[in-house]
């Protein structure tokens, strides 16, 4: 039985398609949707200290992406928005466990910094290591 669906979002087209598919599944199962946005701060902080202004901008961008996912929801579907920082793959797996997710629904390709070079590296990592089923949406 699917009660908790984890939906990592990044604002990409694939992410939006994953949100739509997760909404369909939640509507059928009566499951709760957990939208997770992860700011990959480790990647952004390569050699510079992040100022409060930069952190604020990163947080605002994440909130906008989470609101976009939330705005796709029809009424009556329970949901939560989570904004986190860190490594996307490790954070997704952390929340899979924390939320006791029954399913992860995510895009097969996100908005990585080197689009295409590491095609699907986060989704591949999740498929290989998640304890629950993973649905990749193209």
What labels would you give this structure?
globular, 5 helices, Rossmann fold, 5-stranded parallel sheet, 138 residues, 44% helix, alpha/beta
Descriptive overview:
Helices cover 44% and strands 22% of the residues. With 138 residues, the chain is α/β, with parallel strands linked by helices. It has one domain (4-137): Rossmann fold. α4 (88-98) packs parallel to α5. Mean pLDDT is 88; it is low at 114-119.
What's the structural blueprint in terms of helices and strands?
Blueprint: E1 4-9, H1 13-29, E2 32-39, H2 41-44, H3 52-71, E3 79-85, H4 88-98, E4 103-107, H5 121-129, E5 134-137
Parallel strand pairs: 1-2, 1-4, 2-3, 4-5
Helix pairs in contact: 4-5
Short synopsis of the structure:
By secondary structure, this protein is α/β, with parallel strands linked by helices. It has helices spanning 13-29, 41-44, 52-71, 88-98, 121-129; strands spanning 4-9, 32-39, 79-85, 103-107, 134-137.
> What's the CATH class, please?
Alpha Beta
| Assigned CATH architecture | 3-Layer(aba) Sandwich
Domain unit count: 1
- Tally of DSSP helical segments: 5
CATH homologous superfamily heading = HUPs
- Quaternary class: single chain
Low-confidence stretches: 114-119
């Amino acid at each position: 039985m699917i009660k908790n669906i984890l939906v990592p979002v990044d604002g990409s087209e694939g992410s939006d398609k994953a949100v739509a598919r997760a909404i369909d599944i939640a509507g059928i199962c009566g499951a709760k949707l957990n939208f997770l946005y992860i700011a990959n701060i480790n990647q952004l902080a390569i050699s510079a200290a992040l100022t409060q202004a930069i952190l604020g901008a990163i947080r605002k961008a994440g909130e906008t992406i989470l609101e976009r996912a939330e705005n796709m929801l029809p009424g009556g579907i329970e949901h939560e928005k989570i904004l986190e920082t860190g490594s996307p793959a490790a954070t997704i797996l952390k929340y899979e466990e924390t939320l006791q997710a029954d399913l992860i629904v995510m895009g097969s390709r996100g908005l990585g910094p080197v689009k295409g070079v590491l095609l699907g590296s986060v989704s591949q990592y999740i498929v290989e290591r998640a304890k629950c089923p993973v649905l990749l949406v193209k």
